[in-house]
From TrEMBL:
This is Uncharacterized protein. It comes from the Bacteria. Belongs to the UPF0231 family. Pfam families: UPF0231.
Amino acid sequence: MEYVFTTADNQNYIVELPMEFMALSKWLSCELGNDKQKIAALIDELNQLCKNHNNNKKWIGHEYTLVLQNKEVQIYSNLIFSSLSEDEAVRLTEENLSLYDEESFSEAGLEDIIKLLTDYLEFMS
């Protein structure tokens, strides 16, 4: 996964990701923002889950939800997916999503997410 960190000023950080990771980028901005403690705590929790082989967890945020299942991470918009059953959501994400829908769903490997968050935290320090 490729990404670039930039800063709009000394307090606002931006993560630029490819289009297929747009929901991930929005999740970082909306749910974590520049909160270094929150990011560090999430990194620790993800690492613990990875070590304990307990790879199933869901974090429901204000606008986006992060789901960890079998070392795969899915991030989806609460607005788009909240009205769907779990089976409907799985079917939707397995089908071709429109450009608009790609902004509402992303998936990546757990190790990639941990590396992204770690690099992001280091960039902000």
